[in-house]
Specification:
Length: about 400
């Protein structure tokens, strides 16, 4: 028999749409996909060359479970430079991707029955990891008119004697919301007042637009620094999704607990990918790469907003970060396309595939009224995909 914890994991709501899109492409049918959760840039050559050098010098053995020292030092330097935070290498744990970092951090903090507050819409993995750790997710529904961000008052109302921690994801997947410094500080006051912990997912921190700035909640006070686990990684900033390097910065006791757990689950992250990550964090070429990628994404973001503004029946809130737009398509619910009733985001996504466009249903993120569109794809595909989406919506009766 499958254990209760594992059998309770919900399969990804996007798998069916993804499988259908792949099947259509394999049979020669043109499908434009807006589901990408990774940059469409290749990993820069200077990072690739560092990995090659690691192979050439035989850097192919185990590293310490918490990561190679040089990488942990480079991560500390990154936090000092980008976030004004002072960490020691003993506060850093390198993991096999940020998802692994999240899982180990949640397990280190959450006991059976503990409540974890999570704003909705949310990245679909958070509730599953909380459940695996034995915790209970307490959702706070955000509003489009507030930019899909929770307020300090809403956070306060959600807290009970069982609340252990609060998960904050800014910039946000799927909405692109970015909390301002003032908004972060107001949330931090509530966290400190009630003695909570924070898991702050900052994986998209470099991808912000329109004057928005990333601000880490760990910067708010010494209490917040000592009660926050920052989760970050190499995947989005340096287009290194397949390299699987994530990391946490945490109080030494939490970092030690995560390292101990990791030593029995994944052991160390790939030595070659760690070696290359040092180059990514330290190379003077990285700033130009990240700036260029951010500009390209911003141009696509602006174009998508312009085109979506011209499509009747859709609404959206301007995203300030990541590479997604969360689009409200609920105005077509109850109508039909080729005999199929559109009764939610899953049905919308399924029907849109018939028009050759693949979108991610918002139900996967806790908001069934919306779909998620990624602009981590070429401008040509964005143009054609939006043309197909507009044509599809017009044909829904």
């Amino acid at each position: 028999m499958i254990s209760k914890k594992v059998s309770g994991i919900k399969p990804s709501l996007t798998l069916e749409i993804t499988a259908k899109a792949k099947k259509m492409k394999a049979s020669g049918i043109s499908v434009i996909g807006f589901g990408a959760g990774e940059p469409d840039f290749n990993t820069p050559d200077y990072i690739i060359n560092a990995a090659k050098h690691a192979l050439d010098i035989g850097f192919t053995k185990y590293t310490p479970a918490s990561g190679m020292q040089e990488l942990k030092v480079a991560v500390c330097d990154k936090f000092k430079k980008d976030n004004g935070l002072d960490y020691q290498p003993s506060d850093i744990v390198i993991s096999s991707g940020a998802k692994s970092s999240l899982y180990h951090a949640i397990c280190a903090l959450v006991d059976d029955g503990d409540e974890v507050i999570l704003p909705s819409p949310y990245w679909l993995t958070y509730p599953e990891l909380i459940g695996l750790a034995g915790g209970k997710t307490v959702f706070i529904e955000t509003k489009a008119e507030n930019g899909f961000k929770i307020t300090a008052e809403e956070l306060e109302k959600a807290i009970t004697p069982k609340t252990k921690c609060f998960i904050l994801n800014s910039p946000n997947n799927p909405t692109g919301a970015v909390y301002s410094e003032e908004e972060i500080k107001s949330l931090a006051k509530v966290v400190e007042k009630h003695g909570l912990y924070v898991i702050s997912d900052e994986i998209y921190e470099k991808l912000v637009y329109g004057g928005a700035k990333h601000y880490s909640i760990a910067s708010c006070s010494e209490y917040l620094k000592e009660h926050t686990v920052i989760v970050n990684g190499m995947s989005k900033t340096y287009s290194m999704t397949g390299w699987r390097i994530g990391y946490i910065a945490a109080p030494a006791a939490i970092a030690k607990a995560v390292s101990s757990m990791q030593s029995h689950t994944t052991s160390n992250a790939c030595s070659i990918a760690q070696y290359a990550s040092v180059e990514a964090l330290k190379s003077p070429e990285s700033e130009a790469f990240v700036c260029n990628m951010q500009k390209v994404f911003d141009d696509r973001r602006k174009y998508m907003m312009h085109r979506l503004s011209d499509i009747s029946g859709v609404k959206f809130t301007e995203p300030q970060g990541a590479f997604y737009i969360f689009v409200d398509v609920s105005s077509v619910y109850g109508k039909s396309y080729e005999g199929q009733v559109i009764d939610g985001s899953l049905a919308f996504a399924d029907a849109a595939l018939k028009k050759g466009v693949a979108v991610v249903p918002g139900a996967a993120f806790g908001n069934d009224g919306c779909i998620r569109l990624s602009y981590a794809t070429s401008m040509d595909d964005i143009r054609e995909g939006l043309n197909r989406l507009e044509a599809f919506i017009k044909e829904v009766k």
